[in-house]
Specification:
By secondary structure, the protein is of the alpha+beta class. The chain folds into two domains: 124 residues, 3-Layer(aba) Sandwich (Creatine Amidinohydrolase, Chain A, domain 1), CATH 3.40.350.10; 216 residues, Creatinase/methionine aminopeptidase superfamily (Creatine Amidinohydrolase), CATH 3.90.230.10. 33% of the residues lie in helices and 23% in strands. The chain is built from ten helices and 19 strands. The longest helix is centred in the middle third of the chain and has 21 residues.
């Protein structure tokens, strides 16, 4: 079953058509990435709409859809209404997470079909990755690993966080990245206590931790990695916190497999951190799924009490963050199997002192 057929399988229920507006769902259904566009899926026909900037690429690369150009005279609502009439669509499932209130109001006013919020069914297929998707994610992770190893010798005391971030981004593209999964997090010293801190003009100093959280895109699929390194030396407290985070990650990865709940895996890492006395300093979840987007479902956190499926790709990223002092996060990416998991991240995890 190809991805479009998966979407077609949703049309025997409360909707008889799908309106795909997010780049990710269009990419998944058409198996080709176009920056701008919309698509309509029905059992009587499927159409993919984009404008003159992308029409030639769409016509050359998109299969199983009729590719139609939109312009000022032939707006998206007008073209979608043509599909509704041609295919006899009465109820159109849409991605509520990717429509603004204004866009939804416009469609409700202009489209000649009932609009039904349909996020969950549309996104559900992406929880389990096909082999070809895993191949892309392995390649993305290989690029990220190579970029990190090349960037390490470039990172020096005396440079700013922004300069370190620039070196990392350069190395990601140099090693084959086709884009970034997200804006990298490159923070040093006391700034590492902020899990999603933003690089600034702080100068990296001896005795600092430096946290690098980064990911690349390869053929539309994401990688995600975090490593925390020290410069010059690490205090005993820094070493202790690092070892606790590493132990939490290793024990949780050892328990990661299909059929276990996300809450249970999160709980294993969380217990290690709590037993070491740092339970109040691990605020976020242990891990999240990723694929076409950097954050997908299912998740490994305290809220997910559902068994995780084989083929899910989840991050493994416990952390400890001591406000005003420092923080440590170590992150790998795992693929769940019936008997365990495959770790896509091949980087060393012992504390590196540069």
């Amino acid at each position: 079953m190809n991805n479009l057929e998966k979407y077609l399988s949703l049309l025997d229920g409360p909707v008889d058509g799908l309106l795909l507006t997010s780049r990710y769902s269009r990419h998944y259904g058409a198996m080709f990435d176009i920056a701008e566009g919309m698509a309509v899926v029905s059992k009587k026909g499927c159409r993919y709409y984009t404008d003159s900037r992308y029409i030639e690429s769409a016509q050359k690369n998109i299969r199983f859809f009729e590719v139609v150009e939109t312009d000022r005279e032939r707006s998206y609502p007008k073209l979608i209404n043509e599909a509704i009439a041609d295919f006899g669509i009465t109820a159109l499932g849409y991605e509520e997470s990717y429509l603004t209130a204004g866009e939804l109001a416009r469609f409700q006013e202009t489209l000649h079909a009932k609009l039904v919020p349909y996020n969950q069914p549309i996104y559900a297929f992406r929880a389990v990755k096909e082999d070809w998707e895993l191949d892309r994610m392995r390649k993305a992770q290989q690029i990220a690993d190579a970029a990190f190893l090349e960037a390490l010798p470039r990172l020096k005391t005396g440079m700013t966080e922004l300069e370190a971030q620039a070196e990392l981004i350069y190395c990601m593209y140099k090693n084959g990245a086709q884009g970034l999964s997200f804006d990298p997090i490159v923070v040093s010293g006391p700034n590492t206590s902020m899990p999603h801190g933003v690089a600034g003009n702080r100068v990296i100093q001896e005795g600092d931790f430096l946290t690098l959280d980064f990911g690349v895109l390869y053929q539309g699929y994401c990688s995600d990695t975090t490593r925390t390194v020290a410069f010059g030396y690490a205090t005993e407290e820094m070493k202790k916190v690092y070892s606790v985070v590493l132990k939490a990650q290793e024990e949780a990865i050892a328990a990661t497999k299909a059929g276990v709940t996300g809450k249970a895996i999160d709980g294993i890492a969380r217990q290690v951190i709590e037993d070491a006395g740092y339970g109040d300093f691990f605020g976020h979840g242990y891990g999240h799924s990723l694929g076409l987007e950097i954050h997908e479902s299912p998740n490994m956190n305290q809220r997910n009490d559902q068994p995780l499926p084989a083929g899910a790709v989840c991050s493994a990223e416990p952390g400890i963050y001591l406000p005003g002092k420092f923080g440590v996060r170590i992150e790998d990416v795992t693929v769940l199997t019936p008997d365990g998991c495959e770790n896509l991240t091949k980087l060393p995890k012992e504390l590196l002192i540069l």
